[in-house]
Amino acid sequence: MPMQTRGDIRNVAIVAHVDHGKTTLVDAMLWQSGAFGAHQHVDERAMDSGDLEREKGITILAKNTAVRYKGPAAVKAGHPDGVTVNIIDTPGHADFGGEVERGLSMVDGVVLLVDASEGPLPQTRFVLRKALAAKLPVILCINKVDRPDSRIAEVVDETYELFMDLLDDAAMSSGQLDFPIVYASARAGRASLTRPENGGMPDEGSLETLFAAILETIPAPEFDDQAPLQAHVTNLDASPFLGRLALCRVYNGTIKKGQQAAWCRADGTVERVKITELLMTEALERKPVDSAGPGDIIALAGIPEITIGETLTDPDNPVPLPLITVDEPAISMTIGTNTSPLVGRTKGTKVTARLIKDRIERELVGNVSIQAPPTESPNSWEVQGRGELALAILVEQMRREGYEMTVGKPQVVTRVVDAKIHEPFERLTIDAPEEYLGAITQLLAVRKGRMEQMTNHGTGWVRMEFVVPSRGLIGFRTEFLTDTRGTGIANHVFEDYEPWVGELKTRQNGSLVADRTGAATSYAMFNLQERGAMFLEPTTEVYEGMIVGENARVEDMDVNICKERKLTNVRSATSEVLERLVPSRKLSLEQALEFCREDECVEVTPVAVRIRKLVLAQHERARTAARAKTAAKS
Length: 634
Description:
Number of strands: 36
Strand content: 25-35%
Low-confidence stretches: 37-49, 574-578
Shape: globular
Oligomer: single chain
């Protein structure tokens, strides 16, 4: 049977490197399609709905929206009532690549956004490679053309080089290299096919050109009208009224509210279920509908245990679709119950192993890029993900939900190839002022990074490409920003597994460790601040084994931070010296995870983030160190 098409729908994903303007572009598309009322209050980056997304300014979860486009291109295509454009806004950070792969499984084409100044970066390569592997047509959108430092022609050439690098001869001959180029300023809501001057605006006053390119380049959904129902679960959500929602793309057949369907599970079993509620997205709202057909992206309720990758199909003729696969995780982290002396001090916190285990299992259901292999310990769990940011986001979300836990130092996930241990490597791209070239090269030499390319744009900035072990990038960002005075920009994406490169000494300084329980005093901190940088304020409660600062030397040092001034009845001009304290370094969760060593962990509670030794007792740590020294001599 010949395949049918639905010309009134287009399914497209917006993909790009982090901070190249995806969510801002979706905002402009929603406004110009009339999705919002004239006086409706809508925040900037409306698709970034999570608190963490707004705080960090990055997209963490892939989300979908739908706009009804009724412009000239829709009339020209024979749809005067308009064309529904389902848009998937995907994350741009490499650690959330699983969300990108899920998003690409729902669409028929992509809009690739590239910054007119920064050009293609590591995540641009990652998302483009996935799109080309799926044989999806691409629209190249050069965004931020109005930036004063834009270099539009060079960026277009660099993007062509990236396509040539990723495409094989068969794909080039099939026309994947023949893509339209749209020049846009998402913030201004303008796009054009004519290349503007560097720093200039597109010559058209709206996004009409982009909508026309989507209708012409992205194919309408195809389906077989004789085939049974097939709806693929690509994401999960939850509603306080309906419970778990399964977000699906309908490939064949029609799905109706109240009907019976066959649920093809991941383990191969088939179960009969009822669709109790059917929803479709309009702008930022989900609205109930009675039925949905091929090409529609829907949310349905009534199946409490359904997971990503499973299929809903005809109960009389169940034909499942292939499961969604994502790249293997590269970084792991141990999450355990909080065992510090200050556990449970905050009212209402969740501290038991059962509650933490349930929360991790809930995360595994909706996040395909995170895994939790079984461990022998009943009170700790290994969680694996794409990168340390993805795992830190999970810990931060748990902290905000009221959980207390201890988190170990991030480690790499190794694999054995030809009887040799291999570890993950990352491709690191750095943009920095050229005066910091020596400092950056030295920083990465210690971390066993090898430089593959260096480009000087002639603007006083250089771009360097390194291939670095993933281990070497744990704790790299803080040192990098310090060495470049906050001006450097670093981005990385997974490259490949290569043989283990040996021991890395990434942290040069030891820790200042509290040797007793009590409250930190300004008197003690004033005397200790010559020894190193402090992490806490006076009057903060501390316990034995808690890390209170960074030592200026290589080794750890046990210190008495609770020491008080001895009061006497003698008064002199020098006895009442004003204690001038250097402001302490407040570490965020990510910085604390980067700082800790193998024998340290991070205690995370809803109100505090503390670094501590795994073994709290000073005499036990001293005994272990003595044994290790004796063993090394023998």
